[in-house]
Each structure stands twice: as structure tokens, then as C-alpha cells.
């Protein structure tokens, strides 16, 4: 019946090893912390950081991937390399690819901080691979090492593992010594679970040596202890051990009872698995539920964010609207101000225009009335053939018509200058000839007033001006001179060459003259003489305004010198012609 | 001296009649009064004695006056000086008229001085001799066929071929023709520049002779006998003209 027993024994040993790993569960928590702390200098390497975090999360596959990546980057730092190898080895170990794990462990250099651990793991792997002699070698190294802190922690396990190894190598003396040693600590600590296992192993040891009495006592001890543990696997194994032992003692009923118990624990284990399964499903369900809640919350959050964003956008839009409104309001205020000033200007201009219109119509009206009256006189005089009077009346009429014509002509020129639709070309002009041409029209008028006219302009005086606008200026100034001259007055035209660039044409009369006030008024821009002090003499001022505009357009200057009662000098300065100066 | 022949292009008789009268009083001859473009061109091209054209810008409300100027300007050698008559300084019309260089105009209403001035300006501009009639040292414009001389307020002309010789006296030149002898105001250098060198040659510091009027040259006496028994001196400096004279061989 020995073969059955051996199967059970091997099975048992395997369990022990697994448990041994399980036993270390608490230790790695500390160990992990240590690794984390001592590997901190390398977290700058992205791949290493990922490797480490996956390692700590026990994601073995990812750990392998990232450690490979890190190693592919031709790492020069040997410590960093060692960490990578360590993580890889550990991961392979966990994935039960022992050969690979062994390979990776062997690459770690001996000055690695956790090299003692490496030996432990190598020893454990050797046990897994049933290379018991190798395992013993590794464990021996640890036993002899100076790492007392580590040894104190793992001493019991190492001693037990050594015991197991010797047991498998059938070196029972050594095995017994180690196992007994390893039992000491759990007995002191009253670690029931460990004790049960260890007693079981002791049983196996003695049973192998056919020391059945001692073995059975250990098995029974282990069995009793196992009853008080909650580990089904231990319970199951102990029951199976008892069953095998009783069967070999031919105590079949006992054996059967133990078998049944073994079956029971096995079922329980299965049940437990089932329960776990259910629990897992429930957990999954709960997780799903939670997930749903989370997603609900997420969507709620999203909605909230959307709402908040909506508010934000609305606020921004409102702000923009407000700013635009303010901008446009300001613009409107500005344009209103501009419009207001323009309106004032326009009103002023319109008032001026109205003024001109009223004065003009008044002038025209009175002239026409005078003409009408004169015409009636004419017809009256014609009836008795009084031709002398007719002649003088005709002269008077032609004077009136002339002045009317001048007024209308000024009006036309003024309108044209306003619309800027008039032809304008500055050429060099012979001043004498032009003045003669203009004065020619006024000779009868002067003769009538018995005015002595002298034109002292030189033949060589040449100016730069637009012919027609200059003629308008001359016409107005001569007309004024005649208008304000008394009977037997003198009008003289002459030039002053006081300036290099300008030629001053002076129109001098010995007429009424004007006050300083009037003079300044006349020189002011676009102010019309509204006051009609002398009904027949003071005009609209339109002529002088027109003169000023035209002279300005010809790039000339205009000045008046006058003494009240003695006469007036109107001075027009125009650029000299460059040629033939 | 001959009168200046003026062609008037004006559709309104009320405007053209005073103009004709005014021109006549100042010794101008009216070559014709045309009232439309076609007539104007007919008269212009059928009479080769026209010296100047006075033309209204608007003929029957269309600016045919400008069209006339543009037409006669198209043939450079046949063109003559012209004066535009217009009643308003309307910019668009003026801009177009101005393209018919040389451009001179007369603004209605005008007095006689303005009219005479405009004619003078037209002649000066057309023959590119500015500041002649109003200057103190010159009163003659010279074209390729005539001398246009200011006489009183108006102008007269002398056919260049009629001149026998010119005698220079300081600032003046005595012009001797078959019929008459008169004085014009022009410098010798100017007149020599403007006259055709093939037609007129200098024979002496003070004499310019019409080559066609030379009857006989007596080098021994330094004398040139001209038609109508006029005689001028031939100085050593200018004896080269003998080569230019057609001689019988």
C-alpha cells in the first residue's frame, strides 16, 4: 500500500510549499515598502516607474512588458538593471514560469540590496523544481549570511524548507534536526496553523522512516490542531494523512471515517469555492451597480459641468453684449456730438445763406425798382422828345444794369467756387494787359464820376495766377474803388516789388475809406457785412469775400490799408512768374 | 502789310455779329462765319489764307467747336491757331478743350481788349513764341510764311516772300518790301533764328537779304543789287553766300 502513501506524501509536500508562499504574504508588504523606497531614485525613467507601479499592483504581465522595455533602452546603471531583473524574476515566479524566473534571478549582481531575498526565492524555485540539493545550497547561503534582520524574519521558514529538502533527499537525521528546530518558534508563538503543518511534516518524516508510533502521534497532534484552524486545506490534508495512516494500519473503519472527513473538507473547500464564486458574482454585481451609480454620477457631473459651462458662456455673451452696447452707445454719443456741432455749423451757414439771400433780394429789388422808375421817367421824357434827359437817364440805367450784372456775376462765381466745378489753371499772366482788359469795362463808369484813373503797372510785371479768378478779383476791387470814390476822385493801379517771390498789386482810391473796425471785419473769414449803414454804398461784402477766396486759391495774400475819409489801398500779393522776371 | 484773316465758327448771329464788327474795326478780315462743324471745315480747307479761327465751344448745344479743333489739329502742317469762345468755365468742357493744344480761350462776355488779347495769345502759343506782343522788346511773331506784327491794338501780317531785305537798327528791324518799308521790334538773333536759313541770308552785320530777291552781286564794290533797285552792302565775313546764289553757267 506504500505507493498510495507516496502520492499523498508528494501532494502534501507541494501543499506545504504553496502554503509556505502564502505564509510570506504579510512579509512582502514590508518588503514592498523597502523596494519602493530604495528604488525611488530611478522613478525618473518612465518605463521603470511603470514597471515598479505594476509590480506593486501585482500586474505581472505588465511588469514584464515594461521591464523589458526599460532593459531595451541599454541601461547603464547596474542597480537599475538589477531592479528590472528582480521584477522580471519575481513576476515569472508568480506566473510559475520557474525556469525563466531562475534565469532572471541569476542575472542579478551579488551587490544588489535584496540579494538575500534572491537566494530565498531561488531556493524556493529549486524546491518547486524538485532540485532539492540546489535548494539546500541556496538556503545554506542565507543561513550563513550576515543579514541578521532578514534571517530572524525567515529563519523558521528556511529551517522548515531545509527540513523538507532533506526529507526528500531521505537524509532523515538532518531533516529531523531542521524540522524540530523549525517547530520551536511556532510552539512558542502558539501559531496553530503552522504548528499543524509542521507536525504533519514531522509525521511524514517519521512515517518515511517507518517510525509509525512517533509518526502517528505527530499526525494525530497535527490533526487535532487542524480541527481548531479555519484552513480547509490543512484540515483536508490532515484528515487525508490520518486516513492513509489508518488504512496502512488496516484500521479501515477509522480510515473510512478520516476519508469521509477528508471528503467533507474537500467538499467544504469546493463549497467554499462555490461560495466565493457566488460572492464574486455578487461582488461583480455590486461593482456593476456601483459602476452604474458612478456612471450616473458621472453623467450628472457632466450635466452639471455643461450647465456651468452654459452659465459661463451666457455670462460671457452677456458681457460681450454689454461691452458692444457700451461701445455703440459711446459711438452714438460721439456721433451725436459731431452731428450737433455739424448742425450748429450748418445752421450758421444756413443763416449766412439766408442773410445773403435777403440782402441780395433787397439789393436786386431796389435796383429793379429804380430801373422801373427810371423807365417810366424815360417814357415820360420821350413823349415830349426831351432827348437830353433821356440820354442821362439811359446812362443811369446802364450803370444800374452794370452793377446788377456784377452782383449776379459774383453770385455765380461764388456758387461755382463752392461747388468746385470751375476750371482753374495757374499760368503766367501779363499784369498790365489783364488789368487794362478789366478796367476797360469800367472806363465809362469812371468817366461818369469824372474819376481820374491811372494804370502804372509795368509791362514787365508778370504774375502766376488763374486768369479768370484773378479777373474776378480785379473786377470786384475796381468796382469797389469806383463805388466808394467821390466825384472827381482818383484811382491808381500800381505794383510794389518789395518781395522776391510776390508781386503786390495796389488798387488805390481817394474815396470814403473805412473804419479800422470795418477793415478788420472785411479781413475776417466768411463774415458778411450785414449792417447797411449807407443804403446805396455798403454792399453785401460778398465781393470782398469772393476776392479773398479767389486770392487764397491762387496762393496769394490780401491786405487793406485805409484811412476814413481819405481813401483805401487794396493790396493783392500774387506769386511772380518765374520766367521773364 | 495785309490784314489777318479770321474764320468765325459761331451758331448764334447775336454773338457773331458784334464779334465781326469788333474785329473789323481793328483791321481784321473775316474769312467767313460758319454756323456748324461741316461748314466750318469746308471754309477752313477751301481757303488757304486763314490765319486764325475763333470758335464757339458749343454749336447747337453740342461741343462741335472742340471737335473742329480736334479735326484741324489732326493734320499738323495744315493746322492754324484757334481761340475757344465759351460762356462758362465748366471744368469738364475745359478739360476736353485743353487737350487740343495749343489751347487759348475767351470767356463771354468779353470786351475788345480781351478779344484782341486772346487772339494774340493764340498766335503766340501756336507758334511757340511766348511773351511777344505784350513785351517791350518785341512785337512780331514769325511763322513759316508770315510775319505777324502788332500794329496799334490789332495785328497785321507780312508775307515772307514779299520781303526784299531786312535792315537792322539796334533793337529794331526795317522791313523793306516792294510796296512799303516799316519797322518792327525784334532782335537780330531772334529773327535769324526764326527765319528759314535757305531763304534769308545775312550779308552784313546789319543786313539780312531774301535770296530770291538778289539781282546782282558785285563783290568788288561789296555790293548786292536787289530787285526794285535796292542795294545792300556785302561784308567780307558773309561773302560765302555767293556760293548759295543760283548762277548762270
UniProtKB/TrEMBL annotation, chain B:
<dbReference type="GO" id="GO:0000156">
    <property type="term" value="F:phosphorelay response regulator activity"/>
</dbReference>
<feature type="domain" description="HTH LytTR-type">
    <location>
        <begin position="147"/>
        <end position="249"/>
    </location>
</feature>
<dbReference type="Pfam" id="PF00072">
    <property type="entry name" value="Response_reg"/>
</dbReference>
<dbReference type="Pfam" id="PF04397">
    <property type="entry name" value="LytTR"/>
</dbReference>
<dbReference type="InterPro" id="IPR001789">
    <property type="entry name" value="Sig_transdc_resp-reg_receiver"/>
</dbReference>
<keyword id="KW-0597">Phosphoprotein</keyword>
<dbReference type="GO" id="GO:0003677">
    <property type="term" value="F:DNA binding"/>
</dbReference>
<feature type="modified residue" description="4-aspartylphosphate">
    <location>
        <position position="56"/>
    </location>
</feature>
<feature type="domain" description="Response regulatory">
    <location>
        <begin position="5"/>
        <end position="123"/>
    </location>
</feature>
<dbReference type="InterPro" id="IPR046947">
    <property type="entry name" value="LytR-like"/>
</dbReference>
<dbReference type="InterPro" id="IPR011006">
    <property type="entry name" value="CheY-like_superfamily"/>
</dbReference>
<protein>
    <submittedName>
        <fullName>LytTR family transcriptional regulator</fullName>
    </submittedName>
</protein>
<dbReference type="InterPro" id="IPR007492">
    <property type="entry name" value="LytTR_DNA-bd_dom"/>
</dbReference>
